Amino acid sequence: MGLRTPAHYVESLRDDRTVYFQGEKVLDVTRHPVIARAIAHASVDYELAEDPSTRAIAVVEGDEPFSRYFLEPRSTSDLDDRATLIETATARCHTLVPLIKEIGTDALFALRRIGRQMDDFRQDNERSNRISKFFEHCRTNDLAMSVAQTDVKGDRSLGPSAQPNPDSYLRIVDRRPDGIVVRGAKVHTSCTPNTNELIVLPTRAMGPNDSDWAVSFALPVATPGLTLVASPYGSQQNEAFDSPISSQRLMMETTTIFEDVFVPNERVFLDGHHEFAGPLALAFVDYHRFTAIAYKLPLVDALVGSAALMADINGIAKANHVREKLTWLIAYAETLRALVESAARRGSPDDAGVYVPDPLIVNIAKSHFAHGFHTALQHVQDLAGGLLVTAPGAADFANPATGNLLRSYLGGRDGIDGETRVRALNMVSDLTTREFGGYHAVLAIHAEGSLEAEKMLIQRSYDPSRVLAYAKQIAGISY
Predict the structure, then answer these.
(1) Residues 319 and 389 in one domain
(2) Domain presence at residue 161
(3) Measured between alpha carbons, how far is 95 from 380 in angstroms, rounded to an integer?
(4) Which residues are CB-contacts of 252 (< 8 A; sequence separation ≥ 6)?
(5) How far is CA 232 from the centre of its chain?
(6) N or C: the chain end with fewer CB closer than 10 Å?
(7) Inside any domain, residue 432
(8) What are 182-195's pLDDT values in tens digits?
């Protein structure tokens, strides 16, 4: 089929998928007043290929052009270009990543990598062949993909096979000659109501007793027995005046339930080989955290810009404490950008020549972003002022009895009337204090792995031998 247009993408979502929103079954996601907003938001990943100003970064040209998302990185330049594409898409979406191709290709790259290892272990090419066929299916048809990785987990102190409820982790409940049957649920499955394919990955390392829980596969979202329960968080439709970002931008999150779902053999990538559950989860993380730090760049830029905008409007741009906060924000944002660039340029090839972002730098970048995010919000909110949560609304400015009074009394520095100031405040409030801002704040801590997971991978990725040898040399010792 080749590259799809946004219209092709929307049309592909009209099928028999089972989606529930606030207790009601959704008959057509493309016509649902909330999910349609998420679809329009995600369509940006298709719009970039249609736009002459972004086609060069969005498309790999050739006899059969395809989306750059599907390009397995074969150099550090390819990693750089991937980061640029992700940043470009997120910037166009006003800080919220579309994520319908980004995360899916992260999973595909990981599957290809671990599939080769499984082939060596099994002494055949069956897994790689299945994964490659699915990869080509997604690339050739320019599909939208979501990823289900995080299990509900139950008692976090226990592994999958030790859980009182065996369905706390997704598991295989039956093996048939033509496929497997799975049961369980995954959470935090972003964009699933508006994608074509769902890729399932294990969430953690597993032991010999966990073989039934060591499973990875892919299914069309409209598969019988697959039920998506969409979160209503952030779904309230506000006016553009009051919520200039979230009135247009929305990512749907679901609890994804597998009720004895049949998966045909050709769609099964990991089946019982517990040794590969951890490596597959980590291989996905290697790419997905790189995606994460790339899509955070427009967000940190927006925070710096918001602080500078409000300092100017409020007439305080030259105050020493304001300069100090702006300097902190600039350093925070530009450090993240430098780390993203370094993670790509320090990437290295695996045994097949596919480049992987430097995991040490990726996790340092993710940790830097997460640990500094709430301080960044504090500085932006401090410079904006309390009107972030007490300002009047659009109807008050439209009312002849109050509109001109508000424009006069709520103005900022000379030349800035009250409506202009409140519009700016509403943008900052949307970004930092309302549901959309809360969504970003929780993502900063939990998305793509916890703060503790980042610490573990920083330590695991760092080779101390060089610095230990240097310290011994300085001390004049040898052992």
Answers:
(1) yes
(2) yes
(3) 16
(4) 34, 35, 38, 190, 191, 192, 193, 194, 230, 231
(5) 18
(6) C
(7) yes
(8) 999 999 999 999 99
Chain length of the chain: 479
Full domain range(s) for residue 41 = 6-280
Q: Is residue 286 part of a domain?
A: no
Looking at the structure, tell me whether residues 459 and 336 fall in a common domain. Answer: yes
> Minimal CA–CA distance to 388: which of 424, 412, 416, 418?
424
Please count the structural domains in the chain. Answer: 2
Residues 82 and 178 in one domain: yes
CATH of the domain at 357: 1.20.140.10
Task: Summarize pLDDT for 124-149 with one digit per residue, the tens.
Answer: 899 999 999 999 999 999 999 999 99
Given 224, 251, 280, the domain boundary residue is: 280
pLDDT tens column, 303-328: 999 999 999 999 999 999 999 999 99
pTM of the entire predicted model: 0.96
Same domain, 331 and 211: no
Average pLDDT rounded to a whole number, residues 58-65: 96
| Region 324-333 average pLDDT | 98
Which CATH number do you get for residue 186? 2.40.110.10
Scan for tokens 């390819």, then name that residue. 78
- Assess whether 253 and 314 both reside in one domain: no
Residue 353 within a domain: yes
Q: Taking the mean position of all CA atoms in its chain, how far away is CA 278? A: 20
Is the pLDDT at 439 greater than 80? The verdict is yes
Name which of 12-21, 116-125, 305-314, 368-377 the model is least confident about. 116-125
Same domain, 336 and 440: yes
Q: Print the SS3 string covering 148-211.
A: ECEECCCCCCCCHHHCCCHHHCCEEEEEECCEEEEEEEEEEEECHHHCCEEEECCCCCCCHHHH
pLDDT in tens, 234-288: 998 889 999 999 999 999 999 999 999 999 999 999 999 999 999 999 999 999 9
Q: Are residues 428 and 452 in the same domain?
A: yes
